[in-house]
Design the sequence.
């Protein structure tokens, strides 16, 4: 039976932090007689940002962890901690072991479940299995199923159930059904992300009618402002969103939909006030929504987490200057892609037996590299993906078509001999890009079995750029951004 609650005003959460050092953890909140508080915190799209970044004001896990401890102290037996996915990928701290260090921190924080995002698949399904052996919590994804048979997978569950203060909470996880196309296609050739609605409906029925859950939560790796989210409202009591990095809080059909941005800048949360006898609930609007911008960055660091991170990751290495840019910025996409393509071409020709004619880097950067000193941390911000290099043999016709997928270096010499074969280096993600119909879309009539000349395992575009910058810096030189405009 759907519980009644009063719909209160929707505002971002606003808090003030007065202390400079770690403040004592607060005393527990006292609910009204006959009521209990159920607090649900939801973190999405952290993208490996474990280390505090004072430039972009990423709070890092020591500050985020302190806030989690603070909220748990206020409600020791009534807090549920969830993730909406895309947690592992995006920094040297997390990429270095493909999500294991991040998962160890999540264990420390006592996460109850994580919905898988598309970037959890960046290192393949075997890696998800591997990380699952470390996780003390389940991975969720009701609509992540085998292809073409749509059968359940052993590393992901459709839902989980937790109990707090006598209240049963069912948690359903789903992912947007088109997102498998944003993953390196060989990693997902035997799975698919089905349309989620039927899976949510089925899981909700089980949770409410068979498991007698009092609250049903939907944690979805899909954007909060998506027009179709209201279709889930009849089946759940709150929707936590993710994936498109929005800061979003709204209500549709009396159900809150909340998304907490990206890189740990916000946490989504809701407080249910539940009657212990009737199990009906209302919602505390002061603790529902998302934390305000810079609130977490200005929060106290937890000294234990900070020490643990320092012992398990080379933070100083992240801050090390690896290169210098002069004469403007290396703007994301066009300029940075062109510089990356040139670096890839030079690397491949110097380190393989092949004479590669062209290199292409797609527009997969996430940030501009500004003029001046470049740290490894900043390079990772701009090029977070572990995109490996592949050498291809393409016809002139295919090459001309493929050149539209990114920045080709050097510029395409026209007219191209459509029948001639050309060696080209590119990232694996771009070369193997597929449509929802499972057809290769980046290269027309692409046949990997005959046209892949060599696959350079664990040779990443980002690391090639790093080596080029370090080499220039060692010789007192810099990257001239004007040369790539």
Sequence:
């Amino acid at each position: 039976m759907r519980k009644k609650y009063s719909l209160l005003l929707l505002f971002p959460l606003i808090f003030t932090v007065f202390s400079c050092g770690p403040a004592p953890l607060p005393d527990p909140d006292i609910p009204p007689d006959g009521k209990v508080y159920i607090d649900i915190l939801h973190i999405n799209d952290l993208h490996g940002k474990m280390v505090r970044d004072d430039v972009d004001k990423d709070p890092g896990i020591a500050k985020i962890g302190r806030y989690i401890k603070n909220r748990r102290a206020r409600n020791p037996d009534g807090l549920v901690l969830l993730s909406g996915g895309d947690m592992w990928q995006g920094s040297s701290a997390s990429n270095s072991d493909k999500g294991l260090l991040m998962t160890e921190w999540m264990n420390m924080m006592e996460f109850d479940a994580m919905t898988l995002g598309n970037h959890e698949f960046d290192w393949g399904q075997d890696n998800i299995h591997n990380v699952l052996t470390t996780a003390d919590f389940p991975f969720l994804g009701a609509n992540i199923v085998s292809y073409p048979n749509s059968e359940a997978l052993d590393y992901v569950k459709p839902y989980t159930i937790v109990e707090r203060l006598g209240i049963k909470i069912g948690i359903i996880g789903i992912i947007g059904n088109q997102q498998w196309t944003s993953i390196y296609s060989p990693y997902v050739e035997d799975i698919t992300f089905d349309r989620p609605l039927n899976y949510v409906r089925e899981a909700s029925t089980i949770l409410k009618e068979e498991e007698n859950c009092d609250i049903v939560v939907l944690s979805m790796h899909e954007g909060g402002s998506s027009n179709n989210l209201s279709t889930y409202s009849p089946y759940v009591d709150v929707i936590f969103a993710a994936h498109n990095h929005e800061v979003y809080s709204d209500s549709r059909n009396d159900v809150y939909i909340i998304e907490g941005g990206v890189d740990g800048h916000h946490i989504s949360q809701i407080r249910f006030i539940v009657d212990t006898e009737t199990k009906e609930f209302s919602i505390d609007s002061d603790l529902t929504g998302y934390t305000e911008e810079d609130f977490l960055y200005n929060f106290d660091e937890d000294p234990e987490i900070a020490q643990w991170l320092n012992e398990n990751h080379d933070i100083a290495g992240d801050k090390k200057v690896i290169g210098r840019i002069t004469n403007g910025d290396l703007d994301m996409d066009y300029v940075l892609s062109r510089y990356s393509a040139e670096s890839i071409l030079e690397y491949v020709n110097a380190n393989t037996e092949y004479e590669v004619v062209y290199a292409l880097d797609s527009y997969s950067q996430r940030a501009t590299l500004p003029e001046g000193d470049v740290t490894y941390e900043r390079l990772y911000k701009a090029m977070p993906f572990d995109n490996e290099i592949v050498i291809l043999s393409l016809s002139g016709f295919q090459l001309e078509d493929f050149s539209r997928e990114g920045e080709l270096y050097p510029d395409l010499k026209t007219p191209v001999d459509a029948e001639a074969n050309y060696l080209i280096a590119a990232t694996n993600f771009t070369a193997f890009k597929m449509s929802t119909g499972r057809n290769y879309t980046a290269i027309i009539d692409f046949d990997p079995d005959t046209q892949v000349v060599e696959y350079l395992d664990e040779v990443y575009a980002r690391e090639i750029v790093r080596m080029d910058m370090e080499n220039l810096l060692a010789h007192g030189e810099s990257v001239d951004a004007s040369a790539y405009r």
Notes: Confidence is low (pLDDT under 50) at residues 1-19. The chain has two domains: 35-315, 320-484. The domain at 320-484 is CATH 3.90.780.10 (5'-nucleotidase;  domain 2).
